[in-house]
């Protein structure tokens, strides 16, 4: 596998960053093409070429959202790192997506009106009117039938696993990372983030230098229990903001 030097750095970084978040559900065959071994090889090598871009473009839930965010911001490449961050973590690009554009994306690209039915889709329309944005947590908490390879409704465990979680690193012991993280819990028919508790993660990737050199106190994101990247306090605050917003939409049942 050869690193393609023609890629601008922000595109190369965006593709690899996106790969790390996409790996967790892909290895479980929940999202994307049956190309997990290839995806893993790219991540391990830190390599970017058109083959990796082709794999990620075949994620039929992920890629239309990236295209939507990029187009709304006038960014040519959906794998620009700013776009990738907007979808998985959250940033100012999400506010540039107009409500009508999100509506069209859900109808035309994700075909949710056809897949989920008019009654279910009408609830999504209400959430769009209340300024929902195309953040990963919006899809997790508010699109009940998976548009990837899962067709069943999520339960509490899968909702918590599928959202992008974050936690402060407490201990690193070989492949095992212990973090303190707020789990998703259910009280009656409502969901909230519970009190922070310890969670053990197993390193599944020979990953980026920052993951290999984790320090106590670092904030680590994870997806389907796979460590993704170290983020800042500010990024964690933004991720929590969008997560809570979309849990709120879910609880309103609108």
Could you list some keywords that capture this structure?
254 residues; alpha+beta; SH3 type barrels; 2 domains; 5-stranded antiparallel sheet; two-stranded antiparallel sheet; 48% helix; globular
Structural summary, described in words:
The protein is an alpha+beta fold and 254 residues long. It folds into two domains: 9-142, no CATH class; 164-232, SH3 type barrels (Roll), CATH 2.30.30.140. The chain is built from twelve helices and seven strands. Strands 5-2-1-6-7 form a five-stranded antiparallel sheet. The protein has a two-stranded antiparallel ribbon with strand order 3-4. α4 crosses α5. The protein is globular, with a radius of gyration of 17 Å. The relative contact order is 0.13.
Q: What strand order characterises the main sheet?
A: 5-2-1-6-7
* Helix content estimate: 40-55%
Total domain units: 2
Q: Count the strands?
A: 7
List the helices and strands and how they pair.
Blueprint: H1 9-27, H2 36-45, H3 50-57, H4 62-72, H5 81-88, H6 99-109, H7 112-116, H8 118-129, H9 136-142, H10 156-162, E1 165-173, E2 176-181, E3 184-187, E4 190-193, E5 197-202, H11 209-212, E6 219-223, E7 226-231, H12 233-252
Antiparallel strand pairs: 1-2, 1-6, 2-5, 3-4, 6-7
């Amino acid at each position: 596998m050869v690193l393609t030097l023609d890629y601008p750095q922000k595109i190369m970084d965006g593709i690899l960053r996106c790969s790390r978040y996409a790996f967790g559900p892909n290895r479980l065959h929940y999202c994307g093409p049956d190309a997990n071994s290839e995806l893993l090889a790219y991540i391990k090598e830190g390599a970017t070429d058109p083959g990796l871009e082709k794999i990620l473009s075949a994620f039929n839930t992920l890629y239309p959202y990236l295209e939507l965010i990029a187009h709304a911001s006038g960014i040519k490449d959906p794998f620009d790192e700013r776009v990738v961050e907007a979808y998985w973590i959250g940033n100012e690009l999400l506010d540039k997506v107009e409500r009508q554009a999100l509506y069209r994306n859900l109808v035309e690209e994700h075909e949710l009106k056809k897949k989920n039915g008019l009654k279910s889709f009408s609830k999504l329309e209400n959430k769009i009117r209340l300024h929902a944005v195309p953040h990963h947590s919006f899809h997790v908490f508010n699109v009940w039938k998976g548009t990837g390879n899962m067709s069943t409704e999520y339960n509490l465990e899968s909702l918590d696993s599928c959202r992008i979680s974050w936690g402060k690193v407490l201990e690193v012991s070989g492949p095992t990372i212990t973090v303190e993280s707020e789990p998703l819990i259910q009280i009656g028919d409502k969901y909230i983030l519970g009190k922070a508790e310890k969670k053990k993660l197993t390193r599944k990737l020979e990953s980026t230098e920052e993951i290999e050199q984790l320090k106590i106190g670092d904030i680590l994101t994870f997806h389907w229990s796979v460590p993704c990247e170290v983020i800042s306090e500010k990024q964690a605050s933004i991720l929590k903001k969008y997560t809570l917003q979309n849990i709120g939409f879910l609880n309103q049942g609108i």
